[in-house]
From TrEMBL, chain A:
Chief location bin: membrane
Species this chain originates from: Maritalea myrionectae
The keyword Transferase is assigned to this record: no
Keywords in alphabetical order: Cell membrane, Membrane, Transmembrane, Transmembrane helix, Transport
Protein name: Oligopeptide transport system permease protein AppC
Family, similarity comment: Belongs to the binding-protein-dependent transport system permease family.
Localization: Cell membrane
UniProtKB/TrEMBL annotation, chain B:
GO molecular function: dipeptide transmembrane transporter activity
Membrane-topology annotation of the record: Multi-pass membrane protein
Organism: Maritalea myrionectae
CDD domains given in the database record: TM_PBP2
Pfam families: BPD_transp_1 (PF00528), BPD_transp_1_N (PF19300)
PROSITE patterns with a match to the protein in the record: ABC_TM1 (PS50928)
Parts of the chain that traverse the membrane: 99-120, 132-157, 177-199, 235-257, 285-307
Protein's UniProt name: Glutathione transport system permease protein GsiC
Domain of life: Bacteria
A GO cellular-component term linked to this record: plasma membrane
Keywords carried by this UniProt record: Cell membrane, Membrane, Transmembrane, Transmembrane helix, Transport
Record carries keyword Transmembrane helix: yes
InterPro entries: BPD_transp_1_N, MetI-like, MetI-like_sf
TrEMBL record, chain C:
Family named by the database record: Belongs to the ABC transporter superfamily.
Pfam families recorded: ABC_tran
MF terms (GO), sorted A to Z: ATP binding; ATP hydrolysis activity
Coiled coil: none
Protein name according to UniProt: Dipeptide transport ATP-binding protein DppD
GO biological process, one term: transmembrane transport
Alphabetical keyword list: ATP-binding, Nucleotide-binding, Transport
CDD domains linked to this entry: ABC_NikE_OppD_transporters
InterPro entries named among the record's database cross-references: AAA+_ATPase, ABC_transp_ATP-bind, ABC_transporter-like_ATP-bd, ABC_transporter-like_CS, P-loop_NTPase
Entries under SUPFAM superfamilies matching the protein: P-loop containing nucleoside triphosphate hydrolases (SSF52540)
């Protein structure tokens, strides 16, 4: 992690919304990761006799329609949502960032081609990609992840290119060129480290969008499928019980909101601390 | 101007062509036999073959792609395999819902989001700003289907002010059609409004720091006069870009919201068609959605060119 | 009776006091200069008079105006809530940045009209706007232009017209010319001078350029870190400054004396530039055909080994573009370069790698020329990749030598760029440029971003290095005095063409080209 | 009077003679189209367009007398020629009728008089009259047969008004109907597939009822609400864990028996259907007079199950796939079943599929291990006699038994044969037999005449009326 980001990080704790966002995100991530090794109850047993148990007894948050422990389900669900969002961001970054760097570094026809490609992919909202993938391979969390990931590609390409373009105008890049470095070497040695914080901010925002998108896709049946669980799927499953057992829908809903808000607040805080010129250069940020 | 328009339109057309090819060839390799689905479990092989031929499924893919493209130009998309109605008609029929819904939400979110964003920017750092932006954070974080569900429970099931869903064609009863769209539009628009409010605020706060606002104040304008007369228009430029991108999200949102309100929109058409393996409908409807997004982005570009006299390289960035 | 008066004005941001007990007085029709180093509080003083201080500022003291009637304002009341009718009407202001001070989406005429509508509604006519434009030497049709369609000087004139539209009794100009090139700068200053005289307007002129202040003002206030150190009539302050701070400012404003050169004559051409041309395709509107801007138009010249060749010209004449082509950073559209046995250029293709190590460059901005995320050591090692034949120890030796040459020590190299001062960075930039021991070094305004006091040191260092290693310099500057100090021969560029060349003294003492004369005339010195 | 009825699935089109979708019959059966016979709510055959019939002694020739004065909704008259047209069309080579099997035995259709028609069949058929009463055998007019998909023209008491694609179908009382008048003036079928939306629509008063409410979990809300009647009836749907009898390891009887020993039917009914459903021990509807209770053929016994698995060589269990089509009974039932089978080490991978994919993979290509599906056709035990059916169950003895059953008309003998067949299936544990799907109707408490059960696919509205 770059020093500027670290600095932004520490100085940001004075910034209350960043501190809150960071803590909330950290707690939820820890909560999700914990489910890998431990959950209060198993999530794959069905115990119908114990369905809709009230909270605060044996089950802190009660049980769902299959008699599963809601807290355990939330943990496992948060993990799925997080995994989908994180991998989608990874897809977006791994493909998008090099494209953006290449566009900025190479210029000319290649840049135009990449921009066209970006516009093209932008025309396919994640849901449409998900529809196509699902039609081909059936619904699953992986499909949701790929669909969201594909949508993330132009987002990161755009941010990376915008940031890189402003770096490329700086004298130290010219100095590096005078030192005989090639375009890709400059991109890796000088451009990438200097736009990293920009990318990290964008990543937190895309993470929060990814969690929301996963929820939406699961809701219409294109995402996570039972017996796996995700926050979105829990919400969907809880919907028909909403009038009788509202808490079923409240828990996952609140978890999603907390997660998304936490990540957004954190991203905002980081952005506030960063060089304003840099973030203005490329930031395509749908959530503001 | 004309040359530029033609050039951009060609770009749009090319994008759509590539999109069409992508959708067609992806869906063409799909497993699943529409004929079998239509005829059900006990259908005989002869009836299957008969139906397949009737649907033109026995021709090579490239020819069918050509036929589809021609169909797209002439508006004759052929017959739906599962619903036995002209696809163009099916899609047009659904558009009378999906388009007002998406555009209604766009307009509503603009009408709500921009003024709130401006208000927050004007009161930057004060309680009003903090409160609004807190609300906006929540608005952004709420899954729209969940919000939609809450709206239904409150306004339809409990208060019975508005229908919980369903749609009546405009031609039949415009008031009922309008009433049916109110809750879905709100469900779609509010989260988007939250986003727009934030973008508008950020943008305006940014602009407010710029020198020309100080110049305007030096002329004798008050702070809010300067913001309104000089700030808002400048701040709108980045907001416009975001609004173009938001449209893609709105389209996606309509598909989700249609589900909550059992609205017969394009999304529902696609889902029914998918479960019926009716690729003819799926691909055309998908292309319509993609086309809408592309065209809106194009219009935003044009608008940008009209609003911003500088327009140096903006459009390409 | 003074027109405007600040008494014991104090401004604080949190616990940082940025203006302390400042007293300042402007008589009707007087021309007052306010000078001081960057950050000394000049702009805040002006903003206080305009009641435009940032909201976070805490203000104490008193402000008095006597425009229509006398008013006295308790400075603590300044702010949005204060009824302050003078802004734009009795006090006009021109700001520093011509590029950003105008609303980009509004025609200039409308921006001027806005002031009229606010303060002189009876004058809000096309004719009056055109008259105002004429007053600032702009043609009437500029009324319908957008700011981006104007040059910097033109924009600054529009800003001036706006400030004048309300017919103010006091005009505040906050560094109105420092973002402009010399010739334009001179034009604007002359314009302000003329208008102030014609309108019998009081003027508060803020600048760190003593030359400009000397040309305009009859009284000078000197600020240092928020405190008034000295004030009085211009001539007195400039000729016999009392305070050390003022003395330093005055000394720095005088040209650096030329060091004595003991340079061996060398006539073998190291660099031969033939018809080098650079065009930029620029389109104003997306749908317009890109119209090429010729930044460098068939430049032809020679540079001998070990010599210093100066390149001067007004801003935008193509100096940087030319040097970048020679350094191989940008492609040329025509022409070629012969350098040390290598040929490159339009037909020959890009610069061969072997030539790369013989040319290096020092950039103007000491802050932008180092990657903020790279340790200084790595930055200095970077050019050595062009010398893979050297061993690691030899690399180390080269870097150590370069560092010591520029007067710094190797133990600083673990730091990141932000931990160095501007002067140090420029030395490091020179060190980086010389680790390869190139035959040619291009210096693109190497000192203009530096504080006046450091300039001399850096120039001396450059001179030193040349004596030691015998490399040639292509020295670019718009500061004629600096060029005169360091170069042997000089070329003058205008609109992409080299219009005049020759021995420094010949060119400067007997200028032939129009542009050279203009450049020389535009110089403002405190002695002049 | 108007009735607004909710349906889960929208029909792809409205011609019951040209598609398998039950959703078509749900709208048009008995309301818009009529057959020679009709099935009443107890599953008995009643006269419809045929007022009367005689069967030859050998059971191969039927003669029907037709109702007179009947016209189609487009004004064209109905007579024996229309019947002949309809039946010939359905059994033609290029027919797209989904139940061609019904018509396969027909050898000849003969018009005797405008109001008399004779049908000859190859072999005696126990349920031929029943089959003629199904939606696939309704009578259509040659003038309108081709356009029935979008503009259905029948003889029923309701006629078609409008179909708002994706939303609703509107029917209206047929003033020219010959026969008992219906009470409703209009019937609107609204399609809502989302259970939550369905619930909201009911609670908000947008709908008067759902003949079969899609979300059993919400019924308690309606039961608590005096505005609604919740009526639990039966359907013909045997919900089974269909098993690929040719796939390893399910080709081993002991493995199938082990599974049968593990299945806890009540837990599945409770968990997936919230208690609505009747456990079954074989492929037969419990409300049918021939039904035998075979629930205890393989009582729940984990030890025994493990032993059987061990005997079959799977002491440590095995992995298999379970393909689940969209309905709740399958998706939720699958999760519960997977949890149950895990108790004896069988590890199921759940694969959710759309119907189209299910038809392709499971039904047509038999590419599956296990699946959960409801067989909704009445009296369909005969499917087990087809070795190519997707269960791939090949038992000569059973096939012979069904062959006999098909030609026997004597009721007592038929009952015995049917019961034998049920026992064989149960003992062979061909499939896992789970439960009979319940019909969970919810409608306005002031409505009467709605069918509690569904012996055939369809929503017969002819007797439905509002309380004064
Ligand atoms: N809004 C602000 N918040 C905090 N500090 C400020 C603000 N504006 C100015 N300052 C500080 O006040 C001091 C004086 O600033 P001012 O802009 O008056 O300097 P200046 O003399 O005009 O400098 P320059 O020549 O660079 O324009 C500086 O230290 C500056 O950092
Ligand atoms: N990247 C570019 N795109 C378009 N035009 C450019 C570009 N770079 C420079 N120009 C134009 O080329 C001309 C010469 O520019 P150049 O930077 O070489 O001038 P300069 O003499 O170095 O000026 P200065 O003294 O201000 O540094 C100018 O008119 C400038 O606007
Ligand atoms: Mg200043
Ligand atoms: Mg330059």
């Amino acid at each position: 992690m770059s020093t500027r980001l670290l600095k932004a990080f520490s100085s940001n704790f004075a910034h209350p919304s960043f501190a809150i966002g960071f803590c909330v995100s950290l707690i939820l991530v820890a909560f999700a990761l914990l489910s890998l090794v431990w959950t209060p109850h198993a999530t794959d047993i069905v115990n119908v006799a114990n369905r809709f148990a009230a909270p605060f007894g044996n089950h802190w948050f009660g049980t769902d329609f299959f008699g599963r422990d809601i807290l355990s389900m939330l943990m496992a669900g948060a993990l799925t949502s997080l995994r989908v969002a994180v991998l989608a961001v990874a897809i977006g970054m791994v493909i998008g960032v090099p494209l953006g760097l290449l566009a900025a570094g190479h210029g000319g026809w290649l840049e135009r081609l990449i921009l066209r490609f970006n516009d093209f992919v932008f025309a396919f909202p994640a849901i449409i990609t998900a529809i196509i993938i699902t039609t081909l391979f059936g619904p699953s969390a992986i499909n949701a992840m790929i669909a969201i990931g594909i949508f993330n590609i132009p987002v990161f390409a755009r941010v990376a290119r915008g940031g890189a373009l402003s770096i490329w105008t700086l004298d130290y890049v010219d100095a590096a060129r005078l030192s005989g470095l090639r375009v890709w070497q400059i991109s890796v040695r000088h451009v990438l480290p200097n736009i990293l914080s920009l990318l990290i901010v964008q990543a937190t925002i895309q993470l929060s969008l990814g969690i929301l998108a996963e929820a939406g896709l699961s809701y219409i049946g294109l995402g996570t499928q039972p017996p796996e669980t995700s926050l979105g799927l829990m919400l969907k499953e809880a919907q028909s019980f909403f009038l009788a057992y509202p808490m079923q829908a409240i828990w996952p809903g609140v978890t999603i909101i907390a997660f998304v808000m936490g990540l957004n607040l954190m991203g905002d805080g980081l952005r506030d601390q960063m060089d304003p010129k840099l973030s203005k250069a490329g930031g395509m940020n749908v959530t503001g | 101007m004309v040359g530029y328009l033609i050039q951009r339109l060609l770009g749009v057309a090319l994008t759509l062509l590539v999109a069409a090819a992508l959708i067609f060839f992806l869906l063409d390799v799909l497993p699943g036999d529409p004929a079998r689905f239509m005829l059900g479990i006990n259908a005989s092989d002869e009836s299957l073959a008969a139906l397949r031929q009737q649907l033109g499924l026995d021709q090579p893919a490239i020819i069918r792609f050509g036929q589809w493209l021609t169909g797209l130009m002439t508006g004759d998309l052929g017959m739906s395999a599962s619903q036995r109605a002209p696809i163009a008609e099916l899609i047009l029929d659904r558009m009378q819902l999906s388009l007002p819904l998406a555009f209604g939400a766009l307009v509503l979110s603009t009408l709500i989001g921009l003024p709130l964003g401006i208000f927050a920017a004007q009161h930057q750092g004060k309680p009003g700003d903090a409160g609004l932006m807190g609300l906006a954070q929540i608005g952004i974080a709420i899954p729209n289907f969940w919000f939609a569900m809450l709206l239904v429970v409150v306004f339809a099931v409990t208060l019975k002010w508005l229908p919980p869903g369903g749609f009546v064609p405009w031609a039949e009863n415009p008031t009922a059609a309008f009433r049916a769209l109110i809750l879905p539009t709100i469900a779609l628009a509010l989260p988007q409004a939250a986003i727009l409010a934030r973008v508008m605020r950020t943008s305006l706060v940014d602009v407010a720091r710029q020198d020309f606002i100080r110049t305007a104040r030096a002329k004798g304008l008050s702070k809010s006069q300067a913001l309104w007369r000089h700030g808002v228009r400048n701040a709108l430029l980045p907001v416009l870009t975001i609004m173009g991108l938001q449209f893609a999200f709105l389209i996606a949102g309509t598909i989700i919201v249609e589900n909550v309100f059992y609205l017969p929109g394009l999304g529902r058409l696609i889902f029914t068609a998918i479960s019926a393996r009716d690729l003819f409908v799926v691909r055309s409807a998908l292309l319509v959605l993609v086309g809408l997004v592309v065209i809106i982005m194009f219009l935003v570009d044009l608008l940008y060119a009209l609003v911003d006299p500088r327009l140096k390289k903006r459009a390409t960035q | 009776m003074s027109l405007a008066k600040l008494e014991q004005l104090t401004v604080r941001f949190g616990d940082r006091e940025v203006l302390s007990r400042l007293d300042l007085e402007i008589q009707p029709g007087a021309q007052v200069g306010l000078v001081g180093e960057s950050g000394s509080g000049k702009s805040l003083t002006a903003l206080t008079l305009m009641n435009l201080l940032p909201e976070r500022a805490e203000v104490f003291g008193e402000i008095g105006f006597s425009f229509d009637q006398r008013t006295k304002i308790d400075a603590a009341q300044l702010g949005e809530d204060l009824n302050f009718p003078y802004r734009g009407a009795q006090i006009g202001m021109v700001f520093q940045e011509p590029m950003t001070a105008l609303n980009p989406l509004m025609r200039t005429g409308d921006q001027i009209g806005e002031v009229l509508a606010l303060h002189r509604p009876e004058n809000n006519t096309k004719a009056h706007i055109e008259a105002l434009l004429a007053e600032v030497d702009l043609p009437a049709h500029m009324r319908t232009r957008y700011p981006h369609e104007l040059s910097g000087g033109q924009r600054q004139r529009v800003g001036l017209a706006m400030a004048l539209a309300g017919e103010p009794a006091l005009l505040i100009a906050d560094e109105p010319t420092s973002a402009l090139d010399m010739i334009t700068q001179r034009g604007v200053i002359d314009l302000i001078k003329r208008i102030a005289r014609e309108r019998k307007m009081a003027l508060l002129f803020i600048s760190h350029d003593l030359g400009a202040v000397a040309a305009l003002c009859d009284q000078i206030y000197v600020l240092e870190k928020g405190k008034l150190v000295e004030h009085g009539p211009s001539q007195a302050i400039l000729q016999s400054p009392q305070q050390a701070y003022t003395k330093r400012l005055v000394a720095a404003a005088k040209p650096t004396p030329r060091p004595a050169f003991t340079r061996t004559k060398n006539t073998t051409p190291l660099l031969q530039v033939n018809g080098l041309t650079r065009q930029f395709r620029q389109r104003r509107w997306l749908w317009q055909r890109p119209s090429p801007v010729t930044a460098v138009d068939a430049a032809t010249f020679e540079l001998h080994a070990g010599e210093t060749l100066g390149l001067v010209g007004p801003s935008g004449c193509g100096k940087t573009s030319l040097s970048r082509m020679i350094a191989g950073l940008d492609p040329a559209q025509a022409g070629e370069v012969h350098f040390d046995g290598h040929r490159f250029g339009h037909k020959q293709g890009s610069m061969p790698r072997a030539a790369r190590r013989e040319i290096s460059m020092v950039f103007q901005d000491p802050f932008g020329s180092f990657d903020p995320r790279m340790r200084m050591r790595d930055a200095l090692f970077e050019p050595l990749h062009l010398m893979p034949e050297l061993s690691a120890e030899q690399w180390q030796e080269r870097v150590t030598e370069a560092i010591e040459r520029v007067g710094l020590s190797t133990d600083m190299l673990g730091r990141y760029p932000h931990a160095f001062s501007g002067g140090q960075r420029q030395r490091l930039a020179i060190a980086r440029a010389m680790v390869l021991k190139p035959k040619l070094m291009i210096l693109d305004e190497p000192v203009s971003a530096l504080d006046v006091s450091i300039r001399g040191d850096v120039l001396a260092l450059l001179h030193d290095l040349q004596e030691k290693f015998g490399m040639a310099y292509l020295f670019i500057s718009h500061d004629l005095d600096v060029v005169r100090t360091v170069t042997d021969r000089v070329m003058v560029m205008d609109h992409g063409q080299i219009v005049e060349r020759g021995k420094v003294d010949d060119v400067f003492d007997r200028p032939q080209a129009e542009i050279t004369k203009k450049l020389l005339d535009a110089r403002l010195t405190i002695l002049g | 009077d108007e009735l607004r009825l909710g349906l889960v699935l929208e029909p792809p089109h409205l011609d019951p003679t040209a598609g398998a979708a039950a959703a078509i019959d749900e709208v048009v059966y008995a309301n818009l189209f009529e057959g020679l016979t009709r099935i009443d709510q107890n599953g008995a055959v009643q006269p419809s367009l045929a007022t009367d019939w005689t069967i030859s002694d050998d059971g191969t020739r039927y003669e029907f007398t037709l109702k007179e004065g009947v016209t189609f909704h487009d004004g064209t008259s109905f007579d024996a020629e229309d019947v002949k047209f309809s039946l010939d069309r359905a059994r033609a080579e290029d027919s797209v009728n989904a139940q061609k099997g019904i018509f396969a035995p027909i050898t000849k259709v003969e018009v005797l008089a405008p109001n008399k028609i004779a049908i000859e069949i190859a072999n005696p058929q126990g349920n031929f009259l029943f089959n003629l009463g199904r939606g696939d055998a309704v009578i259509v007019a040659p003038e309108s047969a081709e356009t029935n998909q979008t503009n259905p023209v029948g003889t029923g008491p309701f006629k078609f008004v409008d179909w708002q694609q994706g939303s609703k179908v509107i029917l209206e009382k047929n003033p020219d109907y010959v026969g008992d008048d219906v009470y409703l003036d209009r019937a609107i079928f609204t399609f809502i597939s989302d259970p939550n939306a369905a619930q909201n629509a009911m609670l908000a008063g947008e709908l008067d009822g759902f003949a079969n409410f899609p979300a059993p979990e919400t019924l308690e809300i309606f039961e608590a609400d005096p505005r609604f009647n919740v009526v639990v009836g039966s359907t013909e749907g045997e919900t089974i864990l269909a098993t690929n009898n040719k796939a390893e390891p399910f080709n081993d009887l002991r493995v199938r028996q082990a599974i049968a020993h593990v299945i806890d039917r009540q837990a599945i009914i409770d968990g997936a259907m919230f208690g609505y459903g009747t456990p079954i021990g074989t492929h037969f509807a419990p409300h049918h007079p021939y039904y035998v209770d075979l629930l205890d053929t393989y009582p729940r016994d984990l030890e025994r199950a493990k032993a059987l698995l061990a005997e079959a060589g799977y002491a440590d269990g095995f992995k298999a796939t379970l393909k689940l089509p969209p309905p709740t009974y399958a998706r939720r039932g699958g999760q519960i079943l997977a949890a149950q089978l895990r108790e004896i080490g069988i590890d199921l991978e759940l694969i959710n599929v759309e119907w189209a994919q299910w038809l392709e993979d499971v039904f047509t290509n038999k590419d599956y291990d296990l699946t959960i599906v409801s067989h909704v056709e009445p009296f369909d035990i005969g499917i087990y006699a087809n070795p190519d059916y997707y269960f791939q169950y090949d038992n000569k003895a059973f096939q012979d038994l069904i062959a006999t059953l098909n030609v026997v008309t004597d009721d007592a003998e038929r009952e015995k044969l049917a019961q034998d067949a049920q026992r064989i299936l149960s003992e062979d544990a061909v499939n896992g037999y789970l439960f009979q799907l319940a019909k969970t109707g919810v409608w306005d408490a002031r409505l009467s005449g709605m069918w509690p059960n569904s012996p055939v696919e369809g929503n017969d509205l002819t007797q439905v009326k509002w309380a004064e």
